[in-house]
Here is the input.
Amino acid sequence: MSDDKEITPPETPETEDASPEQAAAPETEEKQPLSDEEKAAKIAEAKAKAAAKKKAAEDAEPKDPWEEKPVPPVHEDAADDADAEALNSLMPGVVLAADRYAGDVTLTVPSDRIIEVCEFLKNDRAFTFLVDLTAIDWPEREEGRFDVIYWMHRFDDSKRLRLRAVVADGEPIASVVQIWKTANWMEREVFDLFGIIFEGHPGLERILTWEGFNGHPLRKDFPLEGIDTGAAIYPDVYPPGGGPPPEEAEESEGDAP
Amino acid sequence: MNGPDQSLFDVEEMEINFGPQHPATHGVLRVKMKLDGEKIMEAKPIIGYLHRGTEKLFETMDFPQCIPHTDRMDYVAAATNNQGFCVTMEKLLGVTIPPRAAYIRMILAELQRLASHLVWLATHAVDIGAITPFFYTFRERDAILDLFEEYCGARLTLNTMKIGGVPFELPDGWLDRCSELVDGFNAHIDEYESLLTENRIWKKRTIGIGVVSAEEAIEWGLTGPPLRGSGVKWDIRKVFPYDRYDEIDFEIPIGKNGDTYDRYRVRIEEMRQSVRILRQCLDRLPDGPEMARVPKVLRTKEPGMVYGSVEAPKGELGYFIVATEKGTAPYRCRVRPPSFINLQALPAMVEGHLVADLVAIIGTLDIVLGEIDR
Here is the structure.
């Protein structure tokens, strides 16, 4: 809304009159009288109009929120959060950063202390329900490539808390399956799609892709179109360029699987 | 006389596969089982046959382009998927949607919940051996899909919500037709119940099958009817109200024993509550625009991560979106699929039961493989 208002009124007349006047000056003399004062007056008029419009908009009743420009959330410091304080008082220095964004608190904790942090949060702070566990890949980042995200819920006051642990490529992180059973498949999924190793997981194997699949699809450097997994698994059968072996390709023409 | 040769019956363990191509698995689910006779000693679900890399695709698409792809996850409840994504994006962008849009969304979402529960009831009953309810439930489901078709042109993959509202105004007469369906719906639910609720075979096959206690349900991260069936009163619509659910009066039905029968009762009661929500939405539908004023190109302002969730028919459907500075596409979009996490409890639930009960338990978890594999 406010966007179009700002763009249209005062600037346009100014920019318009500068260029056409110079271009048209030599051939059409009649247009000359319409210049300076009148134009200045016109500009002043337009400016006044815009100002009046702006004032009217300000004086008018407040608009409904859905008529306004969206107001994105902002990051706030969440060191005052009760759970962050509890964590910090018991294990000083464990909360590396506390951030509140869109109403949710994210605590960054060191990845080597994830077990004690999670145990404390579950047993002493009643976060009995692990809603989600996932990861984010930041290939260029220096302090570690992956964020492992834990998202937990407390039933007493319906509070949710997010933990973030940074791990480097190839560096393992402790599994939280012993704390929340539900983390089992979530960790398998993160292992499958990101290649993060969860130490102490009861059966860390691929879950969405097949065993023997080459690569971890949700890593940013994994190509969107996929990789030639046939050649990776059966290098002696499949040609390196991809597709089925040449003699089979002729036979199987037309009958798609 | 000597007894039968003991060694003949002393079969130690047999390993068999259930699925992936089997009608009772509701998709392409494979369950590797170790059996002792007909008793399941161990079951291991193997998934991934329908993996399409949706989360990877999300990273390459503008925010609005993601919405049609959400349809294809839980394909029997597309509207709730759209709603989840839109609610999360609105949280990320700070958009407030107009009340009319919120009410239309709730109408669509509750119709979708009815449709999804009808599919669940039909397939669950067929799995257990009662084929009749199928014909009744699909009759009403078709009426609901007709309403969807009239509204947005599609019956299953609806793509019926936009970030900031809903794409269309309701067509003329749609509300009357919807109203007619809603008014008659409780009678239909009675009809299904008359076929099953007091049916002796149904009770025998469902009572005491797949029991999950409240603590176990929380341990396993179950959400939706499997959690409520165990007696935990928890519903995202009440706990973290989205759209305008805080203005609506409805109950959260819960079970007591956490068995298949209780989950059946919970879902049946949920349908009645959906009818109640629909009635209120139709009566109170406010006037006004159906879209908020959002920019043509949706751009996030600064890096950040948000999680938004809705109560899908299967449980808590969450979207976790990571935004970059001035980004038009999600840097990472994680879907928390309720079926995926509910299915995880399957091995614990079937242990010690008969193979036939496995089918009942898969049915009661109400899984959709499109959502599990993504």
About this structure: The two ends of chain B are 60 Å apart (CA to CA). Chain B touches chain A through 53 residues (CB under 8 Å). The beta strands of chain B are 14-18, 21-22, 27-28, 30-36, 39-46, 304-312, 315-323, 332-336.
